[in-house]
UniProtKB/TrEMBL annotation:
It comes from Myodes glareolus (Bank vole). GO terms for cellular component: cytoplasm. Its EC number is 3.1.3.3. The keyword Metal-binding applies. GO terms for molecular function: L-phosphoserine phosphatase activity; magnesium ion binding. This is Phosphoserine phosphatase.
Length: 225
């Protein structure tokens, strides 16, 4: 078991921290909430479980789930207005503390940019630091697919984003924090991965992650001056 002192040293040494969003920064899985809102919750939740467990290629799972949901622009806007995502306890304080230390904070999500930007605004994270999938709509607002060119639309996409960030900003130590298999796979190129089980525990991640926490307070302690 890794000691808390080692974990504190790790978080203090980072010059960039990348967070997954669904079930990490927020308590929900955005795509499941959208499915519930559109009346196809059960089928989509099962696909999400398979995708997060690594049993189904991410782009295949995303394509199939969105084909079931068929979300319109209006439905996405109504979801955010009527059922906004709930921030995980401690995340607001953690992001704020990192920013005070001049650590760059990024959100890297296989979820949807319209939802993730809403979350970023709550955390004072600039939209330029958001990497997520873009839903496409026809002129009448009906669902028209998603932007398959986004790196986050496929397996290994989060790692591609981190590699891009390293090349662009020359970060010496990037930490990836998330609950799922796609987050763990981003290390490397991330220099360290911290598994997060505060909302849902993915056994594959808990068993294989060197660092694993269930409460962001465990990281906040390491950033106290």
């Amino acid at each position: 078991m890794v000691s808390h002192s080692e974990l504190r040293e790790l978080i203090r040494s980072a010059d960039a921290v990348c967070f997954d969003v669904d079930s990490t920064v927020i308590r929900e899985e955005g795509i499941d909430e959208l499915a519930k809102f559109c009346g196809v919750e059960a089928a989509v939740s099962e696909m999400t479980r398979k995708a997060m467990g690594g049993a189904l290629p991410f782009k295949d799972a995303l394509t199939e789930r969105l084909a079931l949901i068929q979300p319109s622009r209006e439905q996405v806007q109504r979801l955010l207005a009527e059922h906004p995502p709930h921030l995980t306890p401690g995340i607001r304080e953690l992001v704020s503390r990192l920013q005070e230390r001049r650590v760059q904070v990024f959100l890297i999500s296989g979820g949807f940019r319209s939802i993730v930007e809403h979350v970023a605004a709550k955390l004072n994270i600039p939209t330029a630091n958001v990497f997520a999938n873009r839903l496409k709509f026809y002129f009448n607002g009906e669902y028209a697919g998603f932007d398959e060119m986004q790196p986050t639309a496929e397996s290994g996409g989060k790692g591609k984003v981190i590699r891009f960030l390293k090349e662009k900003f020359h970060f010496k130590k990037i930490i990836m924090i998330g609950d799922g298999a796609t987050d763990m796979e981003a290390c490397p190129p991330a220099d360290a991965f911290i598994g997060f089980g505060g909302n849902v525990i993915r056994q594959q991640v808990k068993s294989n992650a060197k660092w694993y926490i269930t409460d962001f307070v465990e990281l906040l302690g390491g950033l106290e001056e």
